Amino acid sequence: MIKVLFVAGECDPFIKTGGLGDVIYSLPKYLNKIDVETSVVMPLYSDISEEYKSKMNFIKSFTVSLSWRNQYCGVFEYQHEGITYYFLDNEYYFKRKGVYGFYDDGERFAFFDRAVLMMLREIGYKPDVIHCHDWHTGMIPVIYKNEFTFYTFYRDISTVFTIHNLAYQGVFPPEVLGDLLNLSNGLFYNGSLEFYGYSSFMKGAINYSDKITTVSNTYAKEIQSPCYGEKLDGLLKYKSDELLGILNGIDYSTYNPEKDEYIYRNYNENTIESKMENKLKLQEELHLQISSEIPVLAIVSRLARQKGINLVIQIIEKLLEKNVQLVVLGTGEKEYEEHFKNLEYRYPNKVSANISFDNGLAHRIYAGSDIFLMPSLFEPCGLGQLIALRYGSIPIVRETGGLKDTVIPYNEFTGEGNGFSFAPYNSQDFIFTIERALSFYKEKDIWNSIIKSAMTSDNSWEKSAEIYKCLYETLL
User: Fold this and answer.
1) Domains identified in the chain, total number
2) Sheet holding 171-172, edge to edge
3) What is the CATH number of the domain that holds 41?
């Protein structure tokens, strides 16, 4: 049996800031089902609920050396849904409100990365593969290849690095190499980690990992171009033989309209008519005009330019001239939050702006909406459109990254397709695509066929888990 250790900065249900937390929670469960023994290690943040902390078992402690610093590291273990989780404790680095965005993030995750490698020998656990996720874990392959492979215990461990979002790279002053990581400055001067005068955790991981993956086939191609490559496109193109796009999935036990306890009425692809009850109840809950005939358009998203929110704002006034309703759930940039609240004030029967995050309401919006808007500027994989498809809320997306890989544009001539899409990033193409979708919404037989196609799309983790297993096997 292959043994894999996932290393990440977050994991649901312990702590989550975005889609990374969902992946680290879901994928190990599906790998375990196909004989890949998967464990997870992450920091022990103070924000993790006492409900979980009280059940963790202390294993041991050791000292982590960061140049002249000698830092305590405690190892805690917890079994959850068949997965072994390890939590690395250091109050100086992790006993604070929040997860990322601190002035000393470089030091915090330099500590974490070295501590992960030291932990393996300290607790006597040797995985076949260390699977690192995003920049927070980027120095693990670097430290491993430059230092730990010289020890007998650590030989024959392979490393995989997954890029969840290339826009966040962990870029810090060059001094981190010697002052924090105990590494030679030669790694900076030879270009392995140097990034426009700084050191990049992500660049280091790309250079030193045995395999690099990202979260959709299209994104794997996009990041090799200057438009999406975030100044690493040249390196990624050079490493293209080691780069693989593997599409994220969603956990079908969490997102299942047939059994979802958050929604008003359960349904499946054969009882689409029950979805209407969810719509009417959602309209009632959000104080919108209650009508089965008015299409409900939904946004469940971080309110940021990356998510195409500026395109939504450019077309929204024109869109609200039509007989439609808009439901928004999310937080983000202040100007976007205020814009949607102002729309709700001006169109109280047509717009509901929920500037927060409410997991139960998110489920009810997916179940009760007709159309899901996701016109992202770029989207490595995307989670919203996958959940929307599962619940029969028809996605309208821009053709980028995972959105292009998962949403098949409806073809009125063949009847195929599970959503609608547009390619150029502009408001004219966006509203044209919405209007096209609304024209088919009036044709109930056609619309129900699109809903059925959406709900029967296979976006579970099962397919992707098999691909990861094959990848691990090639590294043994």
Assistant:
1) 2
2) 171-172, 198-200, 194-195
3) 3.40.50.2000
Q: Are residues 16 and 51 in the same domain?
A: yes
User: Which domain does 41 fall in, by range?
Assistant: 2-249+461-475
Burial classification of residue 186, based on how many CB atoms lie within 10 Å of its CB (0-12 exposed, 13-18 middle, 19 or more buried): exposed
Q: How confident is the model at residue 183 (pLDDT cuts 50, 70, 90)?
A: confident
Residue position matching structure tokens 């033989």? 241
HSE-CB of 476 using CA atoms within 13 angstroms:
13
Q: Write the DSSP symbol of residue 22.
A: H
* Confidence at residue 19, expressed as pLDDT on a 0 to 100 scale: 87
Report which of 355, 373, 364, 387 is spatially closest to residue 454, judged by C-alpha positions.
387
What gap in Å lies between CA 301 and CA 355, rounded to an integer?
10
Q: For residue 166, what are the contacts with CB-CB under 8 A and spacing of at least 6?
A: 202, 214, 223, 228, 229, 230, 232, 380
Q: Is the dihedral of CA 73, 74, 75, 80 positive or negative?
A: negative
Residues contacting residue 236 through CB under 8 Å, at least 6 positions apart: 206, 212, 223, 224, 229, 243
Same domain, 164 and 83: yes
Q: What is the pTM of this model?
A: 0.93
Residues 294 and 186 grouped into a single domain: no
One-letter amino acid at 327 equals V
Condensed to tens digits (0 to 9), the pLDDT of residues 205-264 reads 999 999 999 999 999 999 999 999 999 999 999 999 999 999 999 999 899 999 999 999
Whether residue 308 sits in one domain with residue 210: no
